[in-house]
């Protein structure tokens, strides 16, 4: 069983831009996002199998749409969310990494670090594969503060503003804001073009930025 995703259009586009093999790992939106605030939403299933969006935040999470449109994505993310909480997760992920030989990898292109121990598994993977650049977003302030205090050359995260604990993030940590929909976004933060892969460059450089609401 493969746990990583190979058909995420944004991740594949980044691979084309970088000329590198890029992979990602995804879990269920909402259910794995304990610290989400403005984008908190869930995708649930009715008795007849139809999936629907249950929104609790002010905006819709972009990744939720994929779970509504594609049943295989919905199912895989549910399985991955359960797997990421287990003691077997690291070994399964390690074996797939050895086979696939990624050059760039994004943990949680959907979902978030549900448990701190899962984040530590990703750190362990990053130490085992020092030539792979790990990057991504998180609203888990415990995770972003830890990686800020104990940085790694090949594992870079940005805090995604709009969580339940924005006030607990280390001062000076790189932050991603959303521009639009009346959300807080400092005027001096550059608004980037997601289609050009700019977020990868900003995250791996440890810089704050904003993305347009989409």
Index terms:
214 residues; alpha/beta; 6-stranded parallel beta sheet; 8 strands
What does this structure look like?
This protein is of the alpha/beta class and 214 residues long. The chain has one domain (9-212). The protein contains seven helices and eight strands. It has helices at 9-18, 62-69, 71-83, 89-100, 116-128, 141-149, 198-205; strands spanning 22-26, 41-45, 51-55, 104-110, 133-138, 155-160, 175-179, 209-212. It has a six-stranded parallel sheet, with helices on both faces. It has a two-stranded antiparallel sheet with strand order 2-3. β2 and β3 (51-55) form a beta hairpin. α2 (62-69) crosses α3 (71-83) and α4 runs parallel beside α5 (116-128). The longest helix has 13 residues, at 71-83. The protein is globular, with a radius of gyration of 16 Å. 38% of the residues are buried.
Topology readout:
Layout: H1 9-18, E1 22-26, E2 41-45, E3 51-55, H2 62-69, H3 71-83, H4 89-100, E4 104-110, H5 116-128, E5 133-138, H6 141-149, E6 155-160, E7 175-179, H7 198-205, E8 209-212
Parallel strand pairs: 1-4, 4-5, 5-6, 6-7, 7-8
Antiparallel strand pairs: 2-3
Regions with little confidence, pLDDT below 50 for 5+ residues? none
- Strands of the widest sheet, in order across it, are 1-4-5-6-7-8
Instruction: Give me the count of strands.
Output: 8
Question: How would a textbook summarize the main sheet?
Answer: 6 strands, parallel
Question: How many domains would you count in the coordinates?
Answer: 1
Figure out the total of helices.
Answer: 7
Q: Give the overall form.
A: globular
Counting helices, strands and paired strands, the structural category is alpha/beta
Share of helical residues = 25-40%
Nearest-integer average pLDDT: 95
- End-to-end span in angstroms? 32 Å
Spell out the helices and strands N to C. Answer: HEEEHHHEHEHEEHE
Percentage of residues in DSSP E strands? 15-25%
